[in-house]
Amino acid sequence: MAVTAGCCSGGDLFTCDRLGGCSITDLGDVDTTTTAPSPGDILVWDGSQWVPGPPGGATVVGGETSTSVTNVTGGGTEDDPYVVTNDVKVAGGDNAMDVRDGLYVPKHYFDALHLQATSVAGLVPFDEVVTPGSGRTDLVELTTQFANPSPDLPMRVVLEASLNHGQFGMRSPGLAAVIYTRVEVTGAVETAQEVHQRILDGRSGPQEIDIMGSTRKHAFTIPPGGIINLRLLGQMNLITYTGSADINELNHRLAIWGGTTF
Predict the structure, then answer these.
(1) Higher pLDDT, 19 or 48
(2) Fold (topology level) of 110-260
(3) Which of 40, 118, 149, 240 is the 20 to 30 Å CA partner of 71?
(4) What is the separation of C-alpha 169 from the centre of its chain, rounded to a whole number of angstroms?
(5) 19 DSSP assignment
(6) Paired residues of 103 in beta bridges
(7) pTM score above 0.85
């Protein structure tokens, strides 16, 4: 049989001399030119043909998931080993930070806010502050907002309402009053907190009271990206007033602080 094609064409027989001039790539199912072999490679089957590849073991390949990308470089030989690296995908670019050598954790947000209002300053008769028997009356009001800056993490906060330092001078009996600090929360969270002090004078002689006030805390959670409206109120209810009494320095305060968690 004469060979009419390929490196052995032109003769009637396959002889060692003729085969010596052939390359293995001349075989129909072998391809060593698309990817050139490296020292130590063998022929491996890629599903359609034989191509150069490392001997033994599995070929290391990269990949991608919804949270990371795995990259593979190198030829897998002793002189050119595989190098595998991983890139973490940071969703949105604002909900994680690299804390050390590619270790990503969610950002931790912390914030605090303080608001204070003075409803009485200086020595003022009680009945000039509130009309006796008129019920709970607003003396001062301040408003502000507080936000959870994280788009993905809830923020746990503590709200503190305080009534600070009141001085009262009573020079005749028959005084009954209640003073308040009230904080109302609306928006992403609906809640309220308040503290109060009661002053009652039933004695016939003059007296003086100096209070440092009271404080109460309330904890709640602001959802991701949520904004709350804070309304600070100083209030008084002058229940009875039959004589002479005055009030000096009455402060109303709110503080709120908190942070997101990992």
Answers:
(1) 48
(2) Jelly Rolls (2.60.120)
(3) 40
(4) 50
(5) H
(6) 100
(7) no
